[in-house]
Amino acid sequence: MRKGNVLIVEDDDTIRRLLVEFLRAHESVDVDGARDGVEALHRIVTTPYAVVVLDVLMPKMSGIDVLDSLEALTSDPSVKSLDDPPAVLVITSAESSVLPDSAIFQRSPSMVRRVFRKPIEIEAFAKCVEMYLNA
Question: Edge-to-edge strands of the sheet including 4-9?
Answer without folding.
Answer: 29-34, 4-9, 51-55, 87-92, 112-117
